[in-house]
Records
---
Amino acid sequence: MRIAIASGALLGAAVLAGLVAGATPARSATGESSDAQVVRVVARRFSYTPNRITLKKGRPAVLEFTSIDFVHGFNVPDLHLRADLPPGQVTRVPIMPLRAGVYDMLCDNFCGAKHEEMNGQIVVD
Ligand SMILES: [Cu+2]
């Protein structure tokens, strides 16, 4: 009988712990906040879609890239962001936009004739 009571108390504690854990903002192993703005971006010769990404200043964000055809090179020089984008997988790029502004993004892996046209902007406001 004592065992039954003890296990009941343990179960109650476990449920309570679960509720408390559920009430606190979750963080992934990489430290990304669960309230991050997630923006999916498709990369292909010779464009990013969307090619204008708007983020809220002070709110963490994650850019999720899928490349269709090539290892494009996502680069935002003024934000010191860079990632190779291998096709066939999602490449996540965390970003904490702290300063309002318009930042040019480009592809820095030569991907063909119109490579120079593969660009866009990140707008933080
Ligand atoms: Cu490219």
---
Amino acid sequence: MASNRGVVYVGPGKVEVRSIDYPKPVDPRGRKINHCVILKVVVTNICGSDQHMVRGRTTAPAGLVLGHEITGEVIEIGSDVEFIKVGDLVSTPFNVACGRCRNCRDRETGVCLTVNPGRAGGAYGYVDMGGWIGGQAEYVMVPYADFNLLKFPDKAQAMEKIQDLTCLTDILPTGYHGCVCAGVTTGSTVLVSGAGPVGRVRSIVALYSFSMAACSFSALAACSRRGSFSALGFPLPICAQAGPASIAAITTAATNVFMATA
Ligand SMILES: [Zn+2]
Ligand SMILES: [Zn+2]
């Protein structure tokens, strides 16, 4: 049987690359599933939210394989998979979602009702999210392949930009979703609190997707990592040392406010 290695949570402040089992076509409860694929991981990311586990702020069990931002090549497919083929290069949304339950049909795939016995919503490699094995690994199993996977139509072209396309698994759609949920539109004044990958992408989305056409955008960003914005060439006024008073002033000025924790 093929070998596999993954990034394993060992204990607070400690992760290791260890040998792990090669993926099997079974769900975390041991039920055989035929709607899955096995991916050879091409790129993956460390998420800011992984740090909650790694820093010991959660009940993540030792031995948990991390990683929910997975882009890979399909190397095996189950008998019920219809739209995905061996050799496809695919992006995997971080939410595991069945595509069949009421919430999935309402496009609320982040709170799928069937993939986690403990609560609504599942994810790869994350505490309390259903026990799906993470993809900071050489190989990973993706259930519900037809519903979850985004196939890149031109594999060679995608590989040329794969380190950008890796953002499709979480960072870019999460930032975009934040803009949509906050009601950002042309002319909005936006406060993005948080300057990690999601906060930065959220600012990019706000700036270029919603407002550049009218050139009427103005934005305020309160963040402790000033350089992360200025390095991107943002034409944003930055509040470098955002204390409570300046945060309050900016929040009052902003028409759309959202927080990015990653
Ligand atoms: Zn993530
Ligand atoms: Zn569902």
